[in-house]
Design goal:
Helix content: over 70%
Number of strands: 0
CATH architecture of the largest domain: Alpha Horseshoe
C-alpha cells in the first residue's frame, strides 16, 4: 500500500473522530482517534519490512524474501530510511546470487542510510568481503576499519577476524588466490 494512502486513511479516521466529537458521542470519537494509530505507525514503519525482520529473527530467510518481494515499488511505498533497510534486507536475503549483486545493494543501502550501528557494521563487512573476493586489499582494509568503528556490540567480530585472515592470503599472493590448477611456464 502506498504511503500517501495510509495518510489518507488516517485523515479519514481523524475526520470521523471530529464528527463524533461534534455530535456529542465522545466514546466513538475516542475509538476513532485510536483507529488513527495503525495507519500512522505503518506510515513510518512499513508492514512488509516489519514482517521480513520478524522472519529473519526466526532464521527464515526464504520466508523473509517472499515478504520482501511483495514490495513492488520501493520509491512510492517506502520512506528514504525504509528504502535503505529494503536494500539492506534484499542484499542479505539474496546473498547467494553473488558478490556483485550484494555489493551494489549494500552500497545503495548505506547511501540511503541505516539507522543502527550494528546494521552499518554488517553492511561494511559485506562490502569488505566483496572487496577481498575481488582482490582489492586497500579498499577492504578501509571498509573493515569502518565496520570496526560501528561494531560496538561485537556482533561481527568473527567475520572481521576471518576477513583479516583472508586479506593476509591476498597479501602473500599479490596476483590473487593461489590456483593449483594453473601451470607455471
Amino acid at each position: 500500500m502506498p504511503n500517501f494512502l495510509k495518510l489518507v486513511i488516517a485523515g479519514l479516521f481523524l475526520a470521523g473522530s471530529v464528527t463524533w466529537f461534534v455530535l456529542g458521542d465522545i466514546g466513538w470519537g475516542i475509538l476513532m482517534l485510536l483507529a488513527i494509530a495503525p495507519p500512522v505507525f505503518l506510515f513510518f514503519f512499513n508492514e512488509y519490512i516489519l514482517l521480513v525482520l520478524w522472519r529473519m529473527r526466526k532464521q527464515d530467510i526464504e520466508g523473509g524474501a517472499r515478504w520482501l518481494a511483495k514490495i513492488k515499488n520501493p520509491e512510492s511505498q517506502l520512506h528514504k530510511s525504509q528504502r535503505g533497510y529494503y536494500y539492506y534486507l534484499c542484499a542479505i536475503t539474496q546473498a547467494e546470487k553473488g558478490v556483485n549483486h550484494t555489493e551494489t545493494l549494500m552500497k545503495k543501502a548505506l547511501s540511503l542510510g541505516l539507522r543502527f550501528d550494528h546494521d552499518k557494521a554488517v553492511a561494511y563487512v559485506n562490502l569488505a568481503a566483496s572487496a577481498v573476493a575481488k582482490g582489492r586489499k586497500q579498499e577492504a582494509e578501509r571498509l573493515l576499519a569502518d565496520a570496526q568503528k560501528y561494531n560496538k556490540s561485537g556482533m561481527v567480530d568473527e567475520q572481521i577476524k576471518f576477513l583479516k585472515q583472508q586479506m593476509k592470503k591476498v597479501q602473500q599472493n599479490p596476483g590473487g588466490f593461489y590456483n593449483p590448477n594453473i601451470r607455471r611456464r
